[in-house]
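Subject: Interface between my chains keeps coming out wrong

I've been trying for a while to get a sensible model of this assembly. When I model each chain on its own everything looks fine, but I need the whole thing in one frame so I can look at the contacts. Pasting all components below, labels as-is. Any help appreciated, I'm running out of ideas.
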Amino acid sequence: MSKSLNKAQYEREIEKLEAKALKYESKADTLIDNASHLDSTTDTGKERSSMLNSQALEISKKANDTREKIKMLKRQYEERMKGLPLLKIEHVTKVFAPGTVNEKVALEDINLTVNQGDVICIIGSNGSGKSTLFNMISGTFPVTSGTITLAGLDITKQPEYKRAYDIGRVFQDPTKGTSANMSIEDNMMLASKKGMRGVKFSLNKTTRERFKRLLTPIHLEERLKDNVGLLSGGQRQALTLLMTTLSKPHLMLLDEHTAALDPGNAQTVMDLTKEYIERDSLTAMMVTHNMQFAIDYGNRLIMMDKGHIILDISGEEKKNLTVQTLVARFKEIAKTEFTSDEGLLTE
Amino acid sequence: MIEGIFVEGLIFSVMVLGILISYRILDMADMTCDGAVATGAAVCTMCITGGLGIGVGMLFSFLAGICCGLVTAAIHNKLHIPVLLAGILTMTMLYSVNLRILGNKANVPLVRVTTLYRLFPAWFSFLPSSYASLLGSLICVGIVKALMDMFFRSDLGTALGAMGGNEQMVVSQGMNPATLKYIGLGLGNGLIALSGALLAQYQGFADANLGQGMIVQGLAAIMLGEFLFSTNKISLITLRAVLGGIIYKALMFLGRKYGYLIGITPNDFRLLTGVLVIISLAVAKTRAMYSNNNARKRALKRTKLSAPPKEAFNE
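Reply #2:
Try treating it as a single job with all components included. I did that and got this:
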C-alpha cells in the first residue's frame, strides 16, 4: 500500500480496514462458539468441531493480517508526515489575463513553507495578492507556474473539490460557507464528512445529539431545524467556522472571515477561531487587516506587497514586534510611504 | 368527471416532481423536460406494442429519461455553457430522436394491448373503472413521492439540495459539483419521462408533440403549490408539488368547461399559463419576504424562551 493518500483518503482506508478486521474477528468468534456447542462425544461431532475450529483459525489469521496492514499503513503515513512541512509553495506565479492589455501579475515567484502547527497571520494592502495566494492554495484558479505540495503530495493540478479534503476555507462572505435554504442540521451533516456521498442516512438521533452539543457554545442548539438563511451574519460565520473544523482539516484558510461583521460579532467569531485552532491544534493561515491583532496572535506573521512576500517574521522576533516597528520595516523594504491604503491596515 | 381531473393531475404531478428537482432543488433552469416527456411516452409505447410488457416499458422510459438528463448535464459540464442552453439543445435534438423511436411516425396508438390504465379496472374491480384508475394513479404517485422523499433525506440527496443553495459549499466539502449535476438532472428527467410513460398509457397513444409547453405548465404547478403553505421539509415540498399539479389541471379543466362564457378557447391556454406563472412569481416575491420575516420572528421568540439571548449575536 505505497500509493500516496491524502488525509481524508487515509482515514477512510483505516476505517475500512478496521471494519474488515472486526468482521473477521466476530466471524471467528461465532465459529468457535458453534464448535463448542457441538457434541464432542460422537465422531461426526468431533470432526465438525475440529473443522469449524480450523476455519476459525484461518479467519482469525486473516483478521490479524488486516490489523498488521493497519499498523503498517499508520506507520507509513506517520513516516511520510514526519519532518515534512505541511505546505510547501515553490516558485508560484500567477498572471491574470496573460498577453492582453489587462495582464496583471498577481503573484510573482512566491516561496513559502508552512510547518505543522503554524498559525500564520497575513497582512498586506488590497491587491497585494493575499486572496490570490489563498485561491492558489485551495485551487480556485490554476497556477501559471510553480508547484504546491501539501503533506508531501503534489496538489498543483488537483481540482478544488479534491483539495478540499485536506483544506478548510472560511470566506469573508458569510453566505459562502453554508447553504441558506437548508436546516442547520443538514448543513452540519454535510460538513461532518468530506467527499462524495451515497444514499445513506447519517442524520439520526446520535448525530443530532452530537451536533447539539457542538452548537451549544455558539447558542444555536435550539435551532437545529431552522434554515440557515434565518441566521444573522455573525451566527452564520460562527456556524461556518464550526462546520469547517468538524472534519479536522490539515490546513485552515481564513480569508478575512470577520471583515463583514460588526465589531461585537467579529470579536466573538475571532474568539471562536482561536478556541478551535487551539482545541484541534490546527494549522491555520489567516488574512487580516488588523496589524495589532496580527502581531498579538499566531506564531508567524507574513506581509505581502505587490505579489511578493516582503516580510516573514516568526518566533522571538515576532514577540517583540510593535505596530511602529512593523510600519517602519514596511517602509524600509517597500521603499514607499503608505498611501491611502494605510487606512486599511488599522491598529 | 372529477376523478378524470385527478388522474390527469396525478400523472402530471410526477412530471412536476421531476421539474421540482431541477428547478427548485438544484436551482438549474433545465429545459430538457419538453423532450423528455415525449421520449418517455415514445419508449414506453414502443416497448408495450413490441410486446415487452408494461413493467419493462416503464423501466426503459425511466432509463431513457435519465439518459436525456445526462446528455444535458454533459453538455453543461463539459462545454461550460449555461444549463438553459444545454437543455434547449437536448430538447431540440430529442424531437428527432423521439420521431425515430416512434418509427418515423408522429403518433403511435396503444390499441389491442394491455396498458396500466386497462389493468387498473381489472385489479380494483370493486371500484367503478374511472375510480380504479384514480386509485392506481394514486398508488403510482405515492410510491414515486415516497422514494423521492427518502432519497432527498439521504446524504446524497442533502448534498444535491446544498448544491442548489450554494455550489461553493459543495466544493468545499470535497464533492464534485459536476457529478452531482449528472445525478440531479438524470433523476429529474427520469421522473419526467416516467410521467410521459403514464400519460401515454392513460390517453392511449404516444405523440412526438406531447411535451410541447410542458415546462411552463410544470412551473405553473410548482408555483401554485407553493401558495398552499411554506415549509423546508422535503416531504411537504413534494406534497405541495403534487397538489399544485392537481390544482393546475383542475384550473385548466374549469377553463375548458366554463371558459367559453368569457370567450376563452383552448387556444388561449398557453397564454394564460404564462400569465399565471408571471403572476405567481410576482406574488411569491412579496410573500417570500413576508414569510421570511415571520419565520425569523418565530425563531427569535423560541430561542428567547428556551435560552438566554447572547448579546454578541444581536440580530
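Reply #3:
Confirming on my end. The two ends of chain A are 52 Å apart (CA to CA).
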